[in-house]
Amino acid sequence: MIPAAFEYARAGSVQEAASLLQKHGEDAKVLAGGHSLIPLMRLRLAQPSALIDINGLKELDYIHVEGGRLRLGALTRHVTIQHSAEVRQNLPLLADIASEVGDNQVRNMGTIGGVFAHADSAGDYPTLALMLDAEVVTDRRRIPAREFFQDLFTTPLEADELVCEVSFPVAPGSHRYIKFRRRLFDWAIVGAGAQQVDGGWRVGLTNCGPTPVRCTAVERALSEGASVADAAERAADGLSPSGDLRASPEYKKHLATVLVRRAVEQAQTG
Amino acid sequence: MKHRIAVTVNGKEREAEVEPRLLLVHFLRDNLGLTGTHIGCDTSQCGACTIHLDGKAVKSCTLFAVQAQGHELKTIEGLAAPDGELHPIQQAFWDEHGLQCGYCTPGFIMAAAYLLDQNPSPSEDDIKKGLEGNLCRCTGYVNIIKAVQTASRTMSGAAQAQPAASGA
Ligand SMILES: Cc1cc2nc3c(=O)[nH]c(=O)nc-3n(C[C@H](O)[C@H](O)[C@H](O)COP(=O)(O)OP(=O)(O)OC[C@H]3O[C@@H](n4cnc5c(N)ncnc54)[C@H](O)[C@@H]3O)c2cc1C
Ligand code: FES
Ligand code: FES
């Protein structure tokens, strides 16, 4: 289908992007990789009045490792994260996850900043961000991941606020992310991540609620010496996923316990 | 408001005035008459519209034409040699019967060309993963995978033959 008409402007700098957003008002939107926004516009589920194209902002396309943090510019594309030696060394789980976002064509366009700003419940990076207490850095503030994902497609971002960076703590320890889906390129029906940090475990789930979920009950059970199988049963604690075309809430809760167990086991065995 | 764009398509400079909402695939098909690039879905999932943007495989239904300003595009029409000799990937799809109705084929060939550019000798699993963004409703994929394997062999054979020939 043909998207509704809109105004288009290319931003030459972060400041210009913000001022263009202000100028075009509430219904203006940032255009990054376009791989969540354009599909919505084609279905006319989104009808922005203007798109501010930030694809020319090379200053938002970087990967830095500094002071124990891995910092990724908002415009870093999935394909770059997937193949980055810095990411592979400092946060290998992020590179693994990037290699399974969509397909080659999606990874060549989609950006990390777009995934955070869009806040789809099936987005994969947000789960890792929540597990590791990552931060979203905007043109005006730093927002911890646990405050960032408020609800389905809902974040604290102002209409004219730009995501500039996502900053993760370095975590090279044992790790695994398992994405359960029917076809290779699909979004996760349920995803589960496990990452060892300072001898303990961080565990999280994708698409088991309106926002990513951190499995603190599982983490606690593991730190108290429970077996992986027993700890993983706690993954369904307090979980209230909504059903969708592909899975009922009960099935998702079942998947959560099975996938968390497998993720921790496979992380342990490397 | 319309925007002026200048793009290189299959080596030719093209200029046009386009509405921002014009999808790149519509620009290629309707404005430039390059109808080899197909449209198979409304949800960015099927890959029939796959082209190369600065050498990278992208879904041309999920970009606006204005975004292509200043970039280099290659479509299925740009793959064969000027004298009409098929590209080794096209020839391999022909030889291995990698198509039935052919609707998905241009997208598969452009995705395969990107895959072989990144990884000239992919394993069967690499091929499956490399083509995960393309759907085919007819073939069952087996002959598509064979075609990519055959193309990989001919193309690496050609690459090896070249230095030997120039050394002789
Ligand atoms: C077939 C297909 C399969 C996919 N599978 C997956 C998957 O398995 N897992 C997954 O996580 N994702 C998946 N995606 C989505 C993909 O990762 C998108 O690239 C991503 O969700 C959005 O990033 P983008 O750069 O494309 O953003 P856009 O589509 O450009 O933007 C999305 C939203 O975020 C806003 N925005 C973007 N960047 C910024 C910024 N810097 N500051 C402020 N606002 C901003 C936009 O205004 C818009 O509202 C898939 C997409 C497709 C088409
Ligand atoms: S037409 Fe289906 S992905 Fe582009
Ligand atoms: S050959 Fe018919 S869809 Fe692939």
Structure notes:
Chain B: Residues 3-79 form the 2Fe-2S ferredoxin-type domain. The complex is a heterodimer of chains A (270) and B (168). Chain A is 35% helix and 21% strand. Chain A is built from twelve helices and twelve strands. Chain A has helices spanning 14-24, 37-42, 78-83, 85-90, 92-98, 104-109, 112-118, 125-131, 145-148, 216-223, 228-233, 249-269; strands at 7-10, 28-31, 50-53, 63-66, 69-73, 135-138, 142-144, 163-169, 175-180, 190-197, 200-206, 213-214. Chain A has a five-stranded antiparallel sheet with strand order 4-5-8-6-7. Chain A has a four-stranded antiparallel sheet with strand order 9-10-11-12, sandwiched between helices. A three-stranded parallel sheet of chain A has the order 1-3-2, with helices on one face. Chain A is globular and about 55 Å long. Chain B is an alpha+beta fold and 168 residues long. Chain B contains five helices and five strands; from the N terminus they run ββαβββαααα. In chain B, strands 2-1-5-3-4 form a five-stranded mixed sheet, sandwiched between helices. In chain B, a hairpin with a 2-residue loop joins strand 3 and strand 4 (56-59). The longest helix of chain B is centred in the last third of the chain and has 26 residues, at 142-167. The relative contact order of chain B is 0.15. Chains A and B meet through helix 2 and helix 6 of A and strand 4, helix 3 and helix 4 of B. Bound molecules: flavin-adenine dinucleotide (FAD) and FE2/S2 (inorganic) cluster (2 copies). Residues 99-104, 136-139 of chain B line the site of one FE2/S2 (inorganic) cluster (FES).
Fill in the keyword field for this structure.
heterodimer, A: 270 residues, alpha+beta, Uridine Diphospho-n-acetylenolpyruvylglucosamine Reductase, domain 2, Uridine Diphospho-n-acetylenolpyruvylglucosamine Reductase, domain 3, Enolase-like, domain 1, five-stranded antiparallel β-sheet, four-stranded antiparallel β-sheet, 21% strand, globular, B: 168 residues, Ubiquitin-like (UB roll), DNA polymerase, domain 1, 2 domains, five-stranded mixed β-sheet, 5 strands, disordered C terminus, binds flavin-adenine dinucleotide, binds FE2/S2 (inorganic) cluster
